Amino acid sequence: MTHPASGLRVDQEKQTDVWSFLTYTWRLLARDKAGMAGLVMFLIVVISAVFAPLLSPHDPLKQNLRFAKHPPAWSEGGSIHHPLGTDNLGRDILSRIIYGTRVSLTVGFFGVLIASSLGIAIGLVAGYAGGTTDNVIMGGVNLVLALPYLVFVVFIAAILGSSLINVILIFGFTDIPIFVRITRGEVIKMRSSGFVESARAIGATDARIIFSHILPNLIGPIVTLATFEMSAMIFYEAGLGFLGLSVPPSIPSWGNMLASGRQYLVSYPWIATFPGLAIIFTGLGMNLLGDWLRDVLDPRMRRVKK
């Protein structure tokens, strides 16, 4: 039976360890200006998605042909009521960009969630089992990776049709091989490491070794990979939207906005320019944040000044 005082000491030690890690992480972030910028940029996108109804000055779906193709507020003929102008149907561009963050983050988050969950599980089996199991799994993975990714995605999207669920599933399942390869490589390195051999020597089962010793050490590379893949999915979703294969045109998304503005690039460039800048802003922020996360979670990559 555990003494109450002993249990209290354990809880205090755990709290101290968590606080020390958070303090150390904040020091790393404060010293990494690019990481801080990436975090701020990412938070701006997340806040825009969560509070879109409060931040949007207009209904993103409301059309008014009287105000169609109005320029941004700082241009001649612009209006403060439409800070970034309006599109060819008179819809407010700023409101549509804010609501478009919801589509992009939803596709990126759930796509990575599906890909990482299945990819980690398959990679663990392939890397730890080895032999024929590994050869069969990696043969299928290499076959999928040999296909041109964007062409493969466009082909599947054209068959399944335009739908947010379809886009999430497409990116989620087509991105599994990347997580399988990374997970398998890390597991192969750890399978013969000292701490795994020690656990095996004291009689630990394979399940305990995988879930208690190997899986926790995968958090660093997997979280970093997930950040970069989420950024890539946002770009790919915009590409599908530009081709008319993402969400239906009635749903505000950055890809749909690019598609509707491409025919006005010369005469009304703001219709496509601002959605494109939103994509660049989000992708840059997530990549900067991913670089910082790699430094924090991978001890070999830490660049802390003593």
Description:
With 306 residues, this protein is an all-alpha fold. It has one domain (11-301): Orthogonal Bundle (MetI-like fold), CATH 1.10.3720. Helix content is 71%, strand content 0%. It contains 13 helices and no strands. α4 (93-129) runs parallel beside α7 and α5 runs antiparallel to α8. The mean pLDDT is 84.
Outline of this structure?
The chain has 306 residues and is an all-alpha fold. Helix content is 71%, strand content 0%.
Q: Major sheet, described briefly?
A: none
How much of the sequence lies in strands comes to under 5%
Per CATH, the class reads Mainly Alpha
| Multimerization state | single chain
CATH topology (level 3) name: MetI-like fold
Provide the helix percentage: over 70%
Helix- and strand-based class? mainly alpha
The figure for the number of domains is 1
Number of strands: 0
Supply the CATH superfamily name.
MetI-like
The Cα radius of gyration reads: 24 Å
Order of helices and strands: HHHHHHHHHHHHH
Distance between the termini: 43 Å
CATH second-level architecture: Orthogonal Bundle
The overall average pLDDT, rounded, is 84
Helix tally? 13
Please describe the topology of this protein.
Layout: H1 4-31, H2 33-50, H3 52-55, H4 93-129, H5 131-145, H6 149-160, H7 164-174, H8 176-191, H9 194-201, H10 206-214, H11 219-242, H12 254-261, H13 270-297
Helix pairs in contact: 2-4, 2-13, 4-5, 4-7, 4-8, 4-11, 5-8, 6-7, 9-10, 11-12, 11-13, 12-13
